[in-house]
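no rush on this but wanted to send it before i forget. what follows is a protein written twice so to speak, once as letters and once as structure tokens for the fold. mainly i need to know what kind of three dimensional shape the backbone takes. thanks a lot i owe you, the record is right below.
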Amino acid sequence: MPFGLLKFGLRKTYPARHQFTPSNTNLKKRYDVVIIGAGGHGTSIAYYLAKYHGVTNVAVFDKSYIGGGNTARNTAVIRSNYLTEESVKFYRESVKLYQGLSNELGFNVMMENRGQLTLAHSDAAIRSFRWRAEVNQHLGVRSELVDRQTIRELVSGLNMSEDVHFPILAGLWHADGATARHDAVAWGYAKGACERGVEIHQLTEVQDIEVSNSRVTAVRTNRGRVECGYAVQAVAGFSSVVARKANIRLPIHTYPLQAMVTQPYKPLLYPHISSPHLHVYIHQTTRGEFVIGGGSDPYPLYNTRATLGQKESLASAVIELFPALAQAKVLRQWAGITDMTPDYSPIMGLSPIKNFFLDAGWGTWGFKATPICGQSMAELIATGRVPDIIRPFELERFYRFQQVNEAGATAASH
């Protein structure tokens, strides 16, 4: 094996083929579909369009790199234990698609079914968890209210003392909770899309969107003008910024969302643990690092800077839950930017412009929804019919006062 690697490294020509569109590929004058954003959602829409609908004259534009935005900045949690029937059904299907995603893409996304435990520190939280468990079970999602003894059996090292500021009273155990490698998901979809003729153009920023007679006719990029038959935006925290280029105002405010990770330690924690009351969640990766996140910053901002105040807040909450981590060393800290809607649910589907589609308003749920969003948005673009599973999340709900309120289903309250 070492000799073979040495020969491979000393070759004058590199035999491997490009997985993605080469950087020197020129833009076409026209594409059937232009997708703005090459994160998990943008690449998955392109993949499903190409594989299941035969739409391959597709260009995905990103001002940065594949999966270089919020996809690379999230904490990779997958779950479906939401509050409303509309959301539970939607995320339930996403979890099912995740289960077979590595085989679907021929690319290991490193999914781990580890379960999620959400902690209750008050009687009100217990009542809310009982309600969520009933809704989840009714719709085929594995969630149950568990007592303190069960929590002790599920999680070793968790501080179950009653002599703390906020004692743990009960928990919501979600057996379907999981994690996956966020970059692998984006790369797998991008690879599959490119193999089927889709072009993914990195370092290609969409600077303007041309609209005529209520239709998008072209997009202007830093590399030139491109005409298109359809356009879709999937740009996470910059959703309202891109939509304004098409003269669409979205009910979205953007907030930084911070997280941090410790140095690797021996295996201690397998499930994903979250405490909405303490504004924190934590799990340990297969590499031994503890991933720690919390609620969004309290003020709107288009910035991915990390702050000492948030680090202190996360650290103090984690130490209350896991005193053994008091001496853990932080390896790095980062932030993404989340596009929050008034009801904490996404905006998917049609827009006021006939051939312009919205994939926005994900807040902290975007990674969880990657497969089902890509599949349903591709179906909408290819057929012109809104799939039933995303109909409750259309922009028009804000004008009909039919919001899908998921403010109480966050892993760490905002």
About this structure: Residues 1 and 7 are 10 Å apart (CA to CA). The longest strand covers residues 330-340. The domain at 29-74+183-252+343-409 is CATH 3.50.50.60 (FAD/NAD(P)-binding domain).
